Amino acid sequence: MKRTKEDIVYQVETEELAKFAKALGHPTRIKILNHLDNASCCYTGDLLEVLPLAQSTISQHLKELKDAGLIQGTVNPPKIKYCINQQNWIKAKALFNEFFSRNMNEISCK
Known about the structure:
It is a single chain. The protein is 66% helix and 14% strand. It is α+β, with helices and mostly antiparallel strands and 110 residues long. It has helices at residues 5-23, 27-39, 44-50, 55-67, 86-106, and strands at 41-43, 71-76, 79-84. It has a three-stranded antiparallel sheet with strand order 1-3-2. The protein contains five helices and three strands. Keywords: DNA-binding, Transcription, Transcription regulation. This is Transcriptional regulator, ArsR family. One of its GO terms (molecular function) is DNA binding.
């Protein structure tokens, strides 16, 4: 069976949605994103005051969010300043909205 352009786009979007969902799959990461949304940007040390976790644990969660593309970091030695990656955040919101809209229309409970 030959794959169409629509199949490839669907697969890429599905993989992106799964990547974003995985990154959002931990309460600490949600808390980090909420903090960044309210503060616009922050340094790792700022999160130590907000979250009762070790710096290494916070750094691991930041890495997951960064790898998923939901946040970006700017190195200002010796610190890293983090903020939400607006372009990918908009993309994630659109993918989730499309996913929930499409699937809600297809579900029928009896």
